[in-house]
Amino acid sequence: MRRNFVLLLSLASSLAAAQQVSAVNGPDLRDLQSSRNMAMGGAYEALGYGAETIGGNPAGLTLYKRYQMEATGSWDVPQGYGFGSIALADSTNPLAMGISYHFATFTKGMPDGTQGRAFAHLTTVSLGYAFGDLIHLGLTTRHHVLVGASNSNSISLNGGIIARPAQWLTLGFSGHNLIHVWNPDITRYFVASIGFQILGQLTPAFDLRMDFNQKDPRLAYHGGIEWLIAQTFPIRVGYQFDGIANHQYLSAGIGWFSEGSGIDFAYRHELGGAQGQLLSLTLKLQL
User: Fold this and answer.
1) What single string gives the DSSP state of each residue in 13-71?
2) DSSP symbol at 79
3) Closest CA to 122 of 148, 75, 84, 94
4) Residue 172 has what DSSP assignment?
5) 3-state secondary structure at position 12
6) DSSP assignment, residue 214?
7) pLDDT per residue over 34-75, tens digit each?
8) CB 3.0 to 4.6 Å from 282: which of 63, 72, 133, 214, for a disulfide?
9) What predicted TM-score, i.e. pTM, was given to this entire model?
């Protein structure tokens, strides 16, 4: 009996160790953001201006009436993490809709101590509906296909709500991966967000991500600000303390903006850790 108990403890310890080393070493699938969001420290869910609402808080689809097309490419050279995406969003009708596709690749620690490569294909469809200009609701369906060091073929749901009590203030809350798919790279988390519009030029934003998948809750803090000069040239800075994946980042970016269309560039630098250096470029067209 004692021998069986010892074997059981050994097996449990081995499984726990394997689960620990299989965590993502660098950026993960929560980092699939446009360049504007990356430059603002990942604080974007209450803003709802770009096609990032499709994979973020889908309630933001109805905040602005537009037809939007976006393409983003990002690469973190030291981490070997990168992704490309295309997205379409149409909020010109009462029922807004968006669709996006992401291809991402990143490294993972394997149970035998080696590094493995994971490849992810994510297809996302979102719907949004507004009750006047005060309450905005959204729902997202996302299909994950992960191969390589992480494997999954699954569907999950995101849902969100945004309240705009004033034209200069938005408050949001969203839940991500609400359907549990038993993959450490597709975990459930929640985001509380707030965004401001000051004099049509300054846009501060803050997101709080909450992960309750372990005994002790883990939090990630995202803050950033955008200054739109002459309604044409945005300058952005941000800071991110990620207590979920144990990363800390400073970020900045610039762009060109004209009637919703333009180009954005961002750079994100990791403080300590693996010294990640991520570059991101987004092209967007709004009709």
Assistant:
1) HHHHHHHHHTSBSS--GGG---HHHHHTTT--TTT--SGGGGTS-GGGGGSS--EEEEE
2) T
3) 84
4) E
5) helix
6) S
7) 999 999 999 999 998 888 899 999 999 999 999 999 999 999
8) 72
9) 0.87
